[in-house]
Amino acid sequence: MTPQDMESRIVRYGDLQPCKTAFIDAHTPGSDQKENFTIIGGGVSESPDQHVHIAIPHGFNIGAAGQPPKCRNSLHDHHTAEVFFVLKGTWRFFWGRWGDAGEVTLQEGDIFNIPTGIFRGFENIGTDYGMIMAILGGDDAGGGVMWAPQVIEDAAEHGLILGENGKLYDSKKQQRLPEGINPMPLMSDAELAKRPEPTTTDVLPNHIARYWDMVALADKKPVNVLGENGLLRDKPGFEVDFITRGSATETKHSHPYPSVLMPMRGHWRVTWDGGAATLAPGDTMSVPENLAHSAVPSMSGEASLYHVVATGDPAGLTWKG
């Protein structure tokens, strides 16, 4: 594969195109400064304004959220797995029917595997613009977002209506629901009562891995962070590995499924049969299936990289306690 072909599979951090109207809380005070990015796959945006950088199916989606300080993402859930790692800043994640069942603070490089079946939200609690990267299971990311009822009600008060077709309509732009399309129904009390409310103590041991712990573990060989036998044991349709300078190798390898390289720290030189490219933190590179490649740091200093590869497993394990 030529360098030109591969360049089309690299999304540079500086080239990311945000959408500020991606979701139902786009007008809700406290959430109206969000920027959402769909990097690989169709994502779950409810807006036609969302730009998709790479539409090639991978078996999972890659997205990102950028938010200024004190901006939050409202309580929601997905039908498939949702995994975050913090690229920039300090973030508070919270969950439960009202967002008060539990919470955790994540720093740069930390990763969080959030089970389905639980409403979750997050906010930038740092002092600068922050960015979190997201991996969603499945090619269609489960068919959309499920919002806590109060999020839909709050949004309607600020002019945004979500149709049962999964699309947003903005009364501030004189938009109305099309004929035959009803508003997205709120979850019933019976449905809400079935949702678990795990505490912080329930969630922390098996769903969060800290950056510096992974750096230590990946000193000699890559560490499997998320997988059937990973630090975070799960089979959401993809695996996540963590690589550092000490565990990187120039020996080429390939996968039967597409894979994605996402540098966390340092510059990385990716070499494949046919060319090479250098990635920086925030860049995302899609590697085709069966293409032999390697990735090693290209400069001195701290170097770490997340590696995501599809597995073909069903996506989206629910909370098991």
Task: Write a structural description.
By secondary structure, the chain is mainly beta. It has 2 domains: 13-207, Jelly Rolls (Sandwich); 210-310, Jelly Rolls (Sandwich), CATH 2.60.120.10. It is 11% helix and 38% strand. The protein contains 5 helices and 25 strands. The protein has a 7-stranded mixed β-sheet. It has a 7-stranded mixed β-sheet with strand order 3-2-4-11-6-9-15. Strand 13 (160-162) and strand 14 form a beta hairpin. It is globular, with a radius of gyration of 19 Å.
Summarize the structure in short:
Residues 69-132 form the Cupin type-2 domain. The protein is mostly beta strands and 321 residues long.
Considering the chains and any ligands shown, give keywords for the structure:
mainly beta, Cupin_2, 2 domains, 25 strands, isomerase activity, Jelly Rolls, RmlC_Cupin_sf, metal-binding, 7-stranded mixed sheet, 321 residues
Silhouette: globular
Structural domains: how many: 2
The major beta sheet can be summarized as: 7 strands, mixed
Tell me which CATH architecture of the largest domain applies here: Sandwich
| Beta-strand content | 35-45%
* pLDDT < 50 stretches: none
- Into which percent range does the helicity of residues fall? 10-25%
SSE sequence, one letter per element: HEEEEEEEEEEEEHEEHHEHEEEEEEEEEE
Overall pLDDT level: 92
Please give the order of strands in the largest beta sheet. 1-23-20-25-18-16-17
By CATH, the superfamily of the largest domain comes out as: Jelly Rolls
Judged by helices, strands and strand pairing, the structural class is mainly beta
Query: What is the CATH topology classification name of the largest domain?
Result: Jelly Rolls
Distance, first to last CA: 45 Å
Strand element count: 25
Q: Just give the CATH class of the largest domain.
A: Mainly Beta
Rg calculated over all Cα atoms: 19 Å
Task: Please count the helical segments.
Answer: 5
